[in-house]
Structure formats: structure tokens, C-alpha cells
Amino acid sequence: MLVKTPVGTEALVAFERVTKSYDGATLVVKALDLTVRRGEFLTLLGPSGSGKTTTLMMLAGFERPTSGHILLDGAPVEKLPPEKRNIGVVFQNYALFPHMSVEENIAFPLRYHGVTGPAAKEKVDKVLGMIHLEGFGGRRPTQLSGGQQQRVALARALVFQPKLVLMDEPLGALDKQLRERMQVEIKHIQRSLGVTIVFVTHDQSEALTMSDRIAVFSDGMVQQLAGPTELYERPANRFVAQFIGENNVLPGDVSTDGRALRLAGGAVVLLPAAIAPGAVEATVRPERLQAADRASDRAIRFPATVREVFFLGDHARLTCEGLGVAELSVKMAAAEFSVLQPAAGSSLTLAFEPEAIHVLAR
Ligand code: ADP
Ligand code: MG
After folding, report:
1. Beta strand 268-270 pairing with 260-263
2. Contact 223 CB / ligand 1 (< 6 Å)
3. Residue 52 in contact with ligand 1 by CB distance below 6 A
4. pLDDT tens-digit map of 312-332
5. Nearest residue to 237 via CA among 360, 325, 346
6. What is the per-residue DSSP string for 145-175?
7. CATH topology of domain 11-239
């Protein structure tokens, strides 16, 4: 049975002004302030090289911060070796011991915690059940599929009931279907155990699916820390706007009274609250742009020229010129597409609801 454990607001982990340099010159983690709440699924999401693994390794104890502090349960951990931190870790490459059976692999961390014999066997069996590998205890890792090996790695991280589990791109080596199944399974296990997970991925859809909150990393800094909906609807800056899902960035100008946004091409959007006048960038998602004849009376209409058309079955993608953008991306539902039949080179009136426009902070 799936029991949803409420996420608290209490901090289990706190990074305080943490920096990291490997070479003494460049900072790969820059003044990181980040709190992980007890019971939450927090994802570090960002492109390759943005400092995600380094951040995770400092928390696990395999790397030392160059400056700053990391608190676990309110106490600094800098001086604690990894095995004393009571943290479960799952790496991308599984790191199972090839010469040990599945059971021995899973029981390995228990030895350190002084659990052996029947007590250990009981814990191993329980966690084998949790990952649906009952009866596989005697096998060697090489006798398992990639997905099964990844489950064993997960079991080994969970067996000593750590309050915190760190996972670094654990599903990266699996094919799409298996990866999506494991995402759901990990989420179920996390909720039913109430364990806190810090998860690393560069895959934004994986992060959106699994996380309570997401810290978007770029260049050693957290660009935004928020829940999936907030990140998608109200990205803090251009990087987040374009890294999470697809987005159009539009040039615009805010009127002197701060209430109206004039987009290139003349479309005017009334803003819900006044902001500073002057040049801004605003965003609109491809799925929020639609054909004008389907839009409501409140919708704002603008002329566009179709440049390219891609039909994808359940929807179509159009690249249009409009709103001052040469390649405005439009996602059109299949029903609408089959009525309109927009062709490359044709003109089209498109529309969006005023709420679809998000002004980026300057
Ligand atoms: P991510 O996990 O987001 O891909 P990493 O934390 O692995 O990023 O890397 C951040 C930066 O630190 C990169 O520029 C990488 O080359 C560098 N780096 C990572 N590990 C080491 C290391 N052990 N020694 C030197 N540089 C490293
Ligand atoms: Mg990494």
C-alpha cells in the first residue's frame, strides 16, 4: 500500500555558503546555500559539469568543501568519514561487487552497522521484496539485467534504513521504458518509507516526474529552487525558462506606468501587477499558443507566418515568425491541426491568454 508521508519543513541537510575548487583556482560549486527538508525528494538538475555530482559527493563525504559548512540533522559533518554519516548512496554505474552474490552485496553495509546472521538475513529479504527480486539473492550481479542490478544497488542503499539516500543519475544507463518504470518505483519506495532522497539528473522530465522540489544548477550555482509547477510556470530567469521544457523568449517593453507589456509586433498584455518600466524579456510556452479562432475573447491575437511544420501524431509542431521572434515554437493539438492544415509559407493568426505570458526578472 502506498502511504504518502507528508514532507516536513524541518531541515535534514543544510549547505551553508559551501564552495568547492579541485584545482585551487576555479570554483565548481559557488557559495551554495541549500536546505533539504526531512522526507522530501529533492533533485539537483542541471547540464553536465554544473556541479551536481560534486555537491552530492561533499554531502556523502567523498569530497571536502573548500569553504563553508554542511549540516546534517543540525550538526556539522565535515569531520565525519562517509561510513559514519549514515547516508545511503546509489551511483550511476551500480558499483556492485562482482564476486559477491546479490544477498552478500545487499548485506555489505549491514556488517559495518554490526548487523549479522539471522537479523541481517531478515533485513535483506525484506528489501529484496521491496525491489521485487525475491528469490534472486543467490545470483551474481553478472546474472542480472541492468535494471535488476540497479534495483540491487538501490536495495543496498536502503537496507540499513538510512534517513537520507543520495542517487547520482541512477537510471542513466537504462532504456527509456525501464527508466520510466524505475522512476515510479523509486518514488513509491521513497513515499512508503518516508526516506529523504537527494537525486541527481540532467533529465528535466525525470526531475519533474519524481521531485517534490528541484534545485536547478548551472555553472556551480543554484539558479532556482522550487517545486515542479512553480519552475515550469514561473522560471526565475532565462536559463531556467529554457532548461525546463521548451519555451519562447519574447522581447518586450513595459509602459511607463508599469502596467502594460508591449511585445514586438504590437501585441499588448496588461500585467497583473505593476513592474518597473523599460525593456524586458517575457516567455510563452509553445502549448500556450493556439489558433485565434479557437481562443477566448480575452485572448491576445497576433499575426504569424508559418515557416516549418512537423506532424507528430497527437500534436503538431509549427515554427512560425511572430512576436518579434524568427523561430516561434507552437505546439498545436492534432484536432486543431487537421482543421487548419497550416502549410509552410502561409499566414496565420495566433493567440494566447494573458496569463500565459511570464515576464523574466531583470
Ligand atoms: P555534474 O555532476 O553536474 O556533471 P561535476 O560536479 O561532476 O558536474 O563537475 C563539475 C566541474 O568540476 C566540472 O568542470 C568537472 O570537470 C570538475 N570536476 C569534477 N570532479 C573533478 C575532480 N575529481 N577533479 C577535478 N575536477 C573535477
Ligand atoms: Mg555528475
Report:
1. antiparallel
2. no
3. yes
4. 999 999 999 999 999 999 999
5. 360
6. -HHHHHHHHHHHHHTT--SEEEEESTTTTS-
7. Rossmann fold (3.40.50)
This prediction has a pTM of: 0.90
Q: How is residue 96 written as a grid cell?
A: 556492485
For residue 25 and ligand 1, the question of a CB distance below 6 A is answered with: no
Mean pLDDT of 122-136: 91
What CATH code would you report for 248-359?
2.40.50.140
Rounded to whole angstroms, the Cα distance separating 115 from 169 reads 29
Give me the pLDDT at residue 54, please.
97
Residue nearest to atom 1 of ligand 1 (CA): 49
Across residues 297-305, what is the average pLDDT? 96
| All structural domains of the chain with their residue ranges | 11-239, 248-359
How far is the C-alpha of 39 from the C-alpha of 197, rounded, in Å?
8
Mean pLDDT, rounded, of the chain? 93
Residue bearing cell 516526474: 209
* pLDDT at 7 > cutoff 70: no
Cell numbers describing residue 59: 554531502
